[in-house]
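Dear colleague,

Following up on Tuesday's group meeting, I ran the structure prediction for the four-component complex that the binding team flagged. I've pasted the input sequences exactly as they went in, so you can double-check that nothing got truncated or mislabelled along the way. The structure tokens for the whole assembly follow below. Feel free to forward this to whoever is handling the docking comparison.

Inputs:
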Amino acid sequence: MERVEAYPITYGVLGLLAFWGPMSGYDVKRVFDHTLAPMWGAAHSQIYKELRRMKELGWVEMEREEQESRPDRKVYTITEKGKTALHEWQSQPAAVFQLRDEMLLKVLFGTFAASGDLAQNLRTAIADHEMRLLSYRQSSLFIPTRGEWRHGDKRHNPYAVESEEDPYFGLIARFAIDFEKMYLNWLYEVLKFVEDKQAPQ
Amino acid sequence: MERVEAYPITYGVLGLLAFWGPMSGYDVKRVFDHTLAPMWGAAHSQIYKELRRMKELGWVEMEREEQESRPDRKVYTITEKGKTALHEWQSQPAAVFQLRDEMLLKVLFGTFAASGDLAQNLRTAIADHEMRLLSYRQSSLFIPTRGEWRHGDKRHNPYAVESEEDPYFGLIARFAIDFEKMYLNWLYEVLKFVEDKQAPQ
DNA sequence: TATATCATGTAATCGGTTACATGATTAA
DNA sequence: TTAATCATGTAACCGATTACATGATATA
């Protein structure tokens, strides 16, 4: 990927603005954590940077809302130019695919672990992923309706097709659930193998 | 993860040195691409940096081999201190788990794609992952024996347990294959959904 | 009454990516 | 003979993470 003006995370944030309408960085982060997190994690500071970047590009407009005893809210709205950019992004093939999983590394180099250590870490990973699976199942990633689910004043979302159900969020939810199920199966198998090794029948 | 002296990729490279014995950065990169790539990708420049970092930490030693008409080979060997570090890493729970997948983002925001664009990109992704699956199956991640598979002069690997089969590489290979199968299933389903939508019966 | 969490951001740092070098072989 | 690929690295840049701020409200 040669240097370009925007990156997957940029379009992720842009997509959220397109879908849910005007939001502050803080709002974006909240929505983000319930929708994009499983496929592209980001710290809130990163989201703020993307918003600034998109403002430079003219993809969003910013309006400052003054508040007492709190930093001003900077509310961002997608522009026509932003919509075009989102559209164009969808016409290009996906470039980035990465898995970064420290647990897999520890399994790979299991030979260098003291007896018991690997099993212990596997159990921690299992607990973590069981939790993820549960949360994906419960919320099904919030399967949201456009323009809804924004706190504070409900300003109109000009890009929203009112009350149209979106099928894609459901598909992503299924992916997240399928992934966690597969991963957990694997983790349990590895754990069994490691435990059997420690205490052979 | 607060700032520490080393990161998952550091231990990844360290593990490779522990497993296969002394190597140059170039060698590490080659081994890396066939073993760690599915769980933690890295550019070669990153690997060189990790080697330099570990040298600072005293985890590896470097020996320069002069060559004509090519940059000198810098051959790195794990030290006792390095072995200890690897051991200690294995006693800590895994901290990083991340998926960064642009295709998932494009599916999530499928509403904003022009007709046909999403299907096209899905087909590209399918081709890509079919290829990955094939390569994982064929090589089974090389399921290697310690101390072997190094090009050039075969110097003795002091950390190798001669000809002992390692079971962990096989487990990781299975993970990679399971993942790709699950992912491909999902991609095909999404593609079907998108195609049906374009041309309803 | 201390400690989270809410709410809202900026700044510094660093892992990771892209770009830059350079000459020898091998392949189209 | 032109272009990949092999072989081996360094340097610059930037996405992403960690740290820094700050005051209100809710919770233990």
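Residues 148-163 of chain B have pLDDT under 50 and may be disordered.

Cheers,
M.
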